[in-house]
Amino acid sequence: MFRAFSDFLSARFPVEKMNFNAMVAKKEVPVHKMSWAYYLGGLSLFFLIVQVVTGLMLLFYYEPTVSDAHASVEFITKHVSGGALIRNMHSWSASAMIFCVMAHMLTAFAMKAFERPRELIWVTGVIMLLLTFTFGFTGYLLPWNQIAVNATKVGLQSIEEIGTFLPQSLSTLPRLIRETIQGEASVGQATLSRFYALHVVVLPLLMFAVLALHLFSIQLHGMSKGVDSEVRKTEKFFPDFMIKDLTLWGVVFLVLFIVALCLPFESFFSYPLSEPYNPLGSTPEGIKPEWYFYFLYYPLEMLPFWVVFLVTNAAVLVLLLAPWIFRGTSRRTLRVLAVVITAYLVLMTVFGEQIYYIVKGGQ
Ligand code: HEM
Fold first, then answer.
1. Does this model's pTM top 0.90?
2. Contact 124, 216 (CB under 8 A)
3. For residue 272, what pLDDT band results from cuts at 50, 70 and 90?
């Protein structure tokens, strides 16, 4: 077994390729009809860098206490020079990052970029996808407004509900997990401290460790072929592709800057996010998570909890094991699957609310 494991590792990390010539000078990018997809990983990286830089700037003023969190966010927005711009950039870029990471995953899937010996590039990618969503979930609570606290309560409550579907011996485990994340009987200071520690320390450290492995493996194995047909043309990664990559980053930065300057992120919410959390206040009508959780939220509203729970867990497992499950599947089939998944995500994200009312109206 040890032998099999060491063979597995040596095929994924070939020592003979660990040199400047193989990893940098000779790196080539195939040119074909799906070459545009090779920019999506770089764009995800760009938005991650924006998140780190703007997040660090916000840290100079943000106070992670239930008494001051909301006021400190308001102070950043109204009184710190450039504060509203940085906050908006952090929010817009978070959404853009989730969009890019999802698009990057779907195109990598359609191009079968996880083929042996590239499985670890894929698996580290799935871990980063989960980390990205956890960044979104933990960051949402930090402004400590009425919507955020109530939405977090609902989210944490659903973890506990899992217990009712588990065998007796395991049924208390979800409650334990919820209490550990929550830190006290109800969402309060301990919860805020934990979400803050996760959002600004634990998740970034994990992300950088996994990202290092992701990028190192890509440099070792190069870009995937991407298409079934013979690749006739390639271009050098350094400097040709990288110059195009960086040009795109420049354009995207300009767009992000202008959008953040002109459009407050919160202007798209149908309810005000500005009210501080009031423990005695009622749960606001129609609270919803951020748009990137709609693909889970609307099914949860329409279907029994256990169905969504089972399907979600199965989907994460299939994603993690995709390089082995789809080893013999053709790129054509993978492309069809990627289109079906994209259609589902777009449908739930854009029309989830309408579908919900149609289903509820019919009952
Ligand atoms: C924060 C999240 C992520 C960052 C920063 C990131 C970054 C990158 C970068 C810079 C590349 C090289 C350029 C490219 O091929 O696009 C890449 C390639 C790749 N990534 Fe990611 N990635 C992320 C998430 C993911 C996810 C969620 C998956 C899939 C589950 C994934 C799977 C891959 C694969 C398979 C490749 C090789 C592509 C090829 O050779 O055709 N990545 N990633």
1. yes
2. no
3. low
